Amino acid sequence: MDTVRRERTDAGDAGHEGDAGGAAPVRTGAAGERRERTDAARNRAKILAAAEGIVAAQGVRGLSMAEVAAAAGVGVGTLYRRFGDRSGLAYALIDAREREFQTAFVQGPPPLGPGAEPAERARAFLRALTDRTVEQLDLLLMAETAAPLARFGGAYDAHHAHLSMLIGQARPGVDAAGLADALMAPLAAPLLAHRLRECGVEVERVKAALDDLLSGVIGG
Q1: Are 60 and 87 in contact (CB under 8 A)?
Q2: How far apart are CA 174 and CA 187, in angstroms?
Q3: pTM, rounded to two decimals
Q4: Are the C-beta atoms of residues 89 and 51 closer than 8 Å to each other?
Q5: At the topology level of CATH, where does 93-218 sit?
Q6: Contact indicator for 164, 177 with CB cutoff of 8 Å
């Protein structure tokens, strides 16, 4: 699943300098540009925080552009210019959390980040990925079922490459890529939602099963 969706700028598709019949755009000074970027970042953070609160309280179905705008204290037009539509806003929520998660396993503290043994890091990664999936389960369920291969792509590739690396380090010579796919399969959003919501399985049971699978793959 590719979670990265480019946002539209507040400026939209304004005319370029030198367009026939158009005046050159007025340029702001460096201080003005920095202030605009700071304001835009602050608005984005407010919007995403408001949207997260609504999803947490009402689920994805309750994600309304008008309600998010009201909660964030911005105009509805700002949301549409930045995110395009409700779906774009949902993907922005996924992307923001995914960036935090990737930062944690690439450069965060051990055992999730560098500094621990590969087997220990792999175990921590699968447990953290479980929590990350459960945290945004409704959003990921929507994203992963949007198309037949929607689960695969940007975020999946990053997770898969990282887990494959750890498996290869812990047990050189095995099919690390194939084993990484097998270990990540139980965390597909539709399957996880079914197990947790329809079968009443506890999250800790999912993690324990992944621990056992990992032990079978790399030992220990």
Answers
A1: no
A2: 22
A3: 0.77
A4: yes
A5: Tetracycline Repressor; domain 2 (1.10.357)
A6: yes
